[in-house]
Amino acid sequence: MGSADQIPDGGKISLYSDPANEAQGLWLLQEAGLITLREGATPGTATQDDIASNPKHLQFVLLDFAAQSRSLPDLDAAAGYTEYYLAANIPLQQQIFAPPAPDDFAGQLTIGSKWADTDNVKNLVAAFQDPRVQDFLATDPAVKGILLPIDAK
């Protein structure tokens, strides 16, 4: 595994192009010591306007989820989700920084109230809560530590 220190001055870093994931990418870059966010900026809502210092003069490229892994040859680094890189056959050894994410970034299933009692939604919720699915997420080598079961702390 490399190091975030290897990113060159003026390096191009990709962040996801939607606001929530762009904020997560900025949090990740701050955790890696590459930028500093202004005091009071929150991990889930930060924008590039919240960058207080950028000592390596990093340039940010906003890309869609699917485009980021294909664009790696043109980038110095990308802040994104491990499972997208694995799906693109990019080995974990290319990962240079992967801290545990705060609970603020946990994915969740959210439905509109008017759909809560429909059979399709009930079946979907039951599938997510199925102990076999939870066991798979906790133990299968392909996803263990990447996709977490519901009760993971």
From TrEMBL:
Assigned keywords, A-Z: Lipoprotein, Membrane, Palmitate, Signal
Main localisation: membrane
Database matches in Gene3D superfamilies: Periplasmic binding protein-like II
Designated name of the protein: NLPA lipoprotein
Coiled-coil regions listed: none
Cellular location(s): Membrane
Membrane topology classification: Lipid-anchor
Organism: Naasia aerilata
Family: Belongs to the NlpA lipoprotein family.
Pfam families: Lipoprotein_9
